[in-house]
Each structure stands twice: as C-alpha cells, then as structure tokens.
Design goal:
This protein is α+β, with helices and mostly antiparallel strands and 206 residues long. It is built from six helices and seven strands, in the order βββαββαααααββ. Strands 3-2-1-7 form a four-stranded antiparallel beta sheet. Strands 4-5-6 form a three-stranded antiparallel beta sheet. Helix 2 packs across helix 5 and helix 3 runs antiparallel to helix 5. The two termini are 30 Å apart. The structure holds zinc ion. Zinc ion binds next to helix 1.
Length: 206
C-alpha cells in the first residue's frame, strides 16, 4: 500500500474584509481512494485583524454513524484578544463495569425488591409480571448473553444488602442531571456570548 500526500491551502475572509486567513492542509490518499486530511496550521494574513484577534476552534462531538462522518464539528473563529471561547461541555454518559452497578443505577430500589419477589414467584423469565423484572433480565442478557434467574436473583440481593455503597442510583442520577443541566446551559450561554463577539471563519478551497 502506498500513500500519495500533498499539501494545499484553504482561505477565509478575515473579520474586516481586507485580508484573509489561511489554513494549510496535508492530504493523504491511499490506493483504495481513502483519504485523510490534517490541518498543519492557520495564519492571519491581515495586519489589522492579526493585531486584534487570535484563532480559536470550537469542537463539539456528536453521535453519528461511522459512514456519515467522524462525529466532530470543528468551527474556527477570529476571537478578540482577551476573550476565549469556553470548551464545549459534554453531557455525561454513565457506563458501569459491573452488572450490579448498572442495575442499581437504572432501577429504583423498590422495583428491585419487587422484581426479586416476581422472579422467585414466577421462576421463568417468560412468566415475569413486572416491567422492572424484564428490564433487569434484559440488562443481564446484554452483558452475559444469557438470562438465568438463578444467576440474577443473587445479584439483586447483593444490591439490596449494599445499597448505601452505590454512588449512582436513579435518585442520585436525577440530582446529577439537574445540576448538569444548569452547568450545560451556563456553558452554552458563555459560548454563545464569546461567539457573538467573534468572527466565524468560512474556509474555502482556492
Ligand atoms: Zn482583516
């Protein structure tokens, strides 16, 4: 396999309109028509704007399928000196390494207790009556590719015995989300304010 690599420039109008900002790109193509690009640097080619502004990027990760892109949005701005665009804060994704942590986080305590009862009474996963029981079975199945109530009930009993030790339960997660919501909204406002004083660069190929 061999790579062809070459460099080219993109340019964008500067804030005052009398000059440009240049972005140097390195592109590599392989034999199968795959290509990747890398930014080698950006320069303000305008004496006035170079005095007043510096370049900053606002990077945001979002969910997308691999064939639709890399899931990164990268916007470049001329930002007045003395101002910074805060980093974009991401919403926390909870993930748990242990099944008991996962169940304790997803299912309220009273439902865990009711599910034990349901599982002991009905004995088969196909006969479970409660939605929470089926949810727990599904969580277990996703992780271990099996759904044996004999294995699941002891996990639930462990959770109940040690309930105080779990940092994340539906209640603590709800509290966390309320605080997080405020922080994210503050973060969004601060970003919007910094952007409103900045000039977004629209890079195009020459
Ligand atoms: Zn300018």
């Amino acid at each position: 396999m061999s790579w062809d690599s070459f460099e080219y420039d993109l340019s964008a109008k500067c804030a005052c309109g009398n000059g440009i900002v240049i972005r140097h790109i390195l592109q590599r193509d392989d034999d199968w028509n795959r290509s990747e690009t890398r930014c080698l640097g950006e320069e303000i080619h305008c004496a006035d704007c170079a005095k007043k502004y510096h370049i900053e990027h606002l990077i945001r990760h979002y969910f997308c399928m691999p064939w639709d892109g890399d899931g990164i949005s990268d916007r470049a701005f001329l930002v007045p000196n003395g101002i910074h665009i805060p980093k974009y804060k991401e919403k926390r994704i909870f993930s748990f390494s242990r099944i008991d942590e996962q169940i304790a986080a997803d299912v309220p305590l009273k439902d865990i207790k009711a599910s034990i009862n349901d599982m002991q009474t009905n004995k088969y996963t196909t006969r479970l009556e409660l939605g929470s029981s089926r949810e727990i079975v599904l969580l277990y199945q996703r992780r271990y590719k099996k759904k044996s109530l004999k294995m699941i009930i002891p996990v639930l009993e462990t959770i109940i015995q040690n309930y105080d030790k779990y940092e994340w339960t539906p209640e603590t997660i709800t509290e966390y989300r309320i605080t997080e919501e405020k922080e994210l909204s503050k973060n969004n406002k601060e970003i919007a304010e910094a952007i409103s004083k900045s000039f977004e660069l629209d890079f195009r190929r020459n």
